[in-house]
Each structure stands twice: as C-alpha cells, then as structure tokens.
Amino acid sequence: MPTALHSDALTRFGYALSDRTRTEILLTLRDAPGYPSDLADAIGVSRQILSNHLACLRGCGLVVAEPEGRRSRYRLADERIGHALDDLLGLVLTVDPACCRAAEDGCC
C-alpha cells in the first residue's frame, strides 16, 4: 500500500521533470558532474535561470553541490537517479513512440 512518503517522493520527482530545463539538467548530469557555467552553456540558458533550476533540484533532493575552491560542481544525489531516468525514458518511448511529436503539437 502506498504511503504519503512514497507519494511525496514521486511528486517531487515529477515536479522536477515537469520543466524542460530541469529535465535537461538531470539528463546532462546523468552522464557526468558539471559546473553551472558549463551546464548553462550546454543547455542554452542563462546562468541565472540555471541557478534557479539547480536550487529547485537541490530542494527536491535530486542534485547535490560539491564545493571545489570558489566553484561548486553539481552531480546527481544518487547514481540510481540516472538509472531511473534511463528506465523512464525507455518506457515512455516504448509505450508511446509518438509522444515527442504530440508534445510538440501542444497536446501535452
């Protein structure tokens, strides 16, 4: 039987994935840790926007910042998050291969 803790945890994960920028951050960090400036450049957003989304992802418990001198490097809080993203992506594309076209058409 699901508990409130289970529901809360999945709701946080769903909220993180509900924004394209946050999703791109998570997908990028599943490959390797990164610095905010590099992540912003790779994703194509300003550093301020990226910083706001990183704060959200930290609040959700999905990423952590590791201080390195005057900089911080971000990584997924647990490597299993990367595996979960891979599994979720594979499942979504298997269940509905047209999902990306539907999202572009504005139905999702």
CATH topology of the domain at 4-78: Arc Repressor Mutant, subunit A
Shape estimate:
globular
Using the 3D structure, state the CATH architecture of the domain at 4-78.
Answer: Orthogonal Bundle
Overall strand count: 2
Query: What proportion of the residues form beta strands (DSSP E)?
Result: 5-15%
Helical residues, percent = 55-70%
**Strand ordering within the main sheet:** 1-2
**Rg on CA atoms, Å:** 15 Å
Q: How would you name the oligomeric state of the polypeptide chains in this document?
A: single chain
Which structural category fits the helices and strands? mainly alpha
Q: Given this structure, which CATH class of the domain at 4-78 is correct?
A: Mainly Alpha
Instruction: Spell out the helices and strands N to C.
Output: HHHHEEHH
Query: What integer is the average pLDDT?
Result: 89
The end-to-end distance, rounded to whole angstroms, is 29 Å
DSSP helical segment count: 6
> Uncertain runs with pLDDT below 50, 5 residues or more?
none
CATH superfamily of the domain at 4-78: Winged helix-like DNA-binding domain superfamily/Winged helix DNA-binding domain
Q: How would a crystallographer describe the biggest sheet?
A: 2 strands, antiparallel
Give an overview of the whole structure.
There is one protein chain. This protein is mainly alpha-helical and 108 residues long. The chain has helices spanning 4-17, 20-29, 36-43, 47-59, 79-95, 99-104, and strands at residues 63-68, 71-76. It has a two-stranded antiparallel ribbon. Helix 3 packs across helix 4. The chain is globular and about 45 Å long. The two termini are 29 Å apart. The mean pLDDT is 89. Residues 2-96 form the HTH arsR-type domain. InterPro entries: ArsR-like_HTH, HTH_ArsR_DNA-bd_dom, HTH_Metal-responsive_Reg, WH-like_DNA-bd_sf, WH_DNA-bd_sf. This is Metalloregulator ArsR/SmtB family transcription factor.
